[in-house]
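During the reporting period the student researcher (J.K.) took over the structure-prediction task from the postdoctoral fellow and processed the backlog of single-chain submissions. One of the processed entries is reproduced below for the supervisory committee.
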Amino acid sequence: MSARAGVGLMFGIPRGGNPTDEMQVLGLVPNRPAALSGRIDVGDAFIAVDGWPVQNKEVRDVSEKIQGMENTLVTLSLKKAGTGELYHVSLLRKQSQDPEDYQPPDSERADRSAD
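J.K. obtained the following structure tokens:
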């Protein structure tokens, strides 16, 4: 049986934001599926996971939706920062081999998650 895995995406509500604000991409873990896609940028608005809207959801719940069995696909819907262009990207979930992958810098935002 495969283990649960993610895509290396750090996201959440920006520090000082309201819980009803859009979640944003706060960081991408190098050499993980989200970063390797070349399509996702820090600051992009996070809209949905496999068609499930993330607006007004708890970060922990969204994180659970992104995670899944290793080597399965998850489709993320995002909006480009600046242009507002909606786009979708399908990523293959992979386990991280390095526990340091998910250590955000001290300056990172408070309400966030990494998957």
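The committee noted the following: The first strand starts at residue 4 and ends at 5.
J.K. will present the remaining backlog at the next meeting.
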